[in-house]
Amino acid sequence: MKVIIIGGVAGGATCAARLRRLDEQAEIVIIERGDYVSFANCGMPYHVGGIITDRDDLLVQTREGFKRRFNIDVRLQHTVTAIDRAAKTVTVCRHDGSTATESYDRLVLAPGAEPRAVTIPGLPADRTLRLRTLNDMDAIIARAETARGMTVLGAGFVGVEVAENLRHRGLEVQLIEFAPQAVAPLDAEMAALVQRELKDNGIDCHFGTTVEQAEPAGARLKLTLADGSTLFTDAVVAAVGVVPETALAKQSGLDLGPSGGIVVNERLQTSDPAIYAAGDAVEIRQRVSGRPALTPLAGPANKQTRIIADNLAGGNSVYHGAIGSAILKVFGLTVGATGLNARQCRQLHIDQQSVIIHAGSHAGYYPGAQPVSVKLVFAPDGKLLGGQVVGTTGADKRLDVLAAIIGLGGTIADLCAFEQAYAPPYSSAKDPVNLAGFAAENLQRGLVRGVEYDAVDRWQEEGAQVLDVRTPGEFARGHIPGAINIPLDDLRGRLADLPHDRKIIVHCQVGLRSYLASRILLQCGFTEVYNLSGGYRTYEAARG
Ligand code: FAD
Question: Could you give all domains of the chain from N- to C-terminal order, each with its CATH number?
Answer without folding.
Answer: 2-114+243-312 (3.50.50.60), 125-240 (3.50.50.60), 332-444 (3.50.50.60), 450-543 (3.40.250.10)
